[in-house]
Amino acid sequence: MKNYLNFETEIKNLELELEKLKDPYNQEGLSEVDTAKISELQADLSTKLKNIYSNLDHWQTALVARHEDRPKAKYFIDHLFENFIPLSGDRFYGEDKSVICGFAKFENKSVLVIGQEKGEDLESRIERNFGMMRPEGYRKTIRLMKLANKFNIPIVTFIDTPGAYPGVGAEERGQAEAISKSIECSMELTVPSISIIIGEGGSGGAIALASSNKVVMLENAIYSVISPEGCATILWRDPKKTLEAATAMKLSSKDLYELKIIDEIIHEPVGGAHRDKDIILENVRNSIRNNLEFFANMDKEQILLQRKNKFLSIGRNRGFTSNSNLSDNLSMKTNAIDKFINKFLNNKIYFSLSFFIAILLLVYLFLL
What we know:
Elements: H1 9-22, E1 25-26, E2 29-30, H2 35-53, H3 58-65, H4 73-80, E3 82-86, E4 99-106, E5 109-116, H5 122-127, H6 135-150, E6 155-161, H7 168-172, H8 175-188, E7 193-202, H9 203-207, E8 214-218, E9 222-224, H10 228-236, H11 242-249, H12 253-258, E10 264-266, H13 277-294, H14 300-312, H15 326-329, H16 336-346, H17 348-367
Parallel strand pairs: 5-6, 6-7, 7-8, 7-9, 8-10
Antiparallel strand pairs: 1-2, 3-4, 4-5
């Protein structure tokens, strides 16, 4: 059974009518299949899909990113990679099933694959915790990223999470520390890392694994520091103002590409990735191949520098280079008086002692 979003009512009606026409054993009994009518409806359906999906607002894009039938990380792992060997546990606490990790082959090249998995049905979603990772999940990915780095194996990550799990147990086990350590580990890697946001890229739960050389988004995916509902509740005290919140956050792939937050947009079939999974598989495969080839001739230092430059250049005209001038990029220019005041404030104890000794010397000389 297909699932439809609230703005897809016309599409739903057309598809239901098409199914009836294609079935000769309908409620009215045996009848002749009207091929001309079917062709007309199919053309009408294609037009409707193009019109709707080419004019999605930001909130509708968020709904598409969360679509139940949208391909998940496990689907991409099963169909894009060969000889996948799943690895479990963080060696500190336990296993987190909301993230799938393991080594695999991509076109005969070894890669580490990490995927945040939401699950396909209610049972698997509960087991996967709806894609919300716990500290042990982040520590598992850190362990495996370090292992991949040691053996010079590229890393491919699939991002799909509403955010890190905010439960009491997760906080007690150091959720914030685990996320920050994951970001630190990601930034220190000397192997190529590619992050693909396939659905929701929510908050620090996504950034922890998306601090990569290349950040790629599917066309109808979203990437933001908070959900539209959470943003609307905080800013407007009204969770219904999701459209205003989603628009203000610029969470769509098009907005983020223009802001140079992400590096590439993977185009989806008309109507979303869930309507033709073969096309989206091929598009993702091509993206991974091209990005791995981009780093094929780079050494470790160049890969590390490229990643640092990428993130340091966000919000700037250019990033830092190996011969960058620190004063031009980071520090504020100050005059001589300001420098003296700053030095005095930073070393006021030494200045006070010097001043006291000078007074004693003057008194001593005066008494002589």
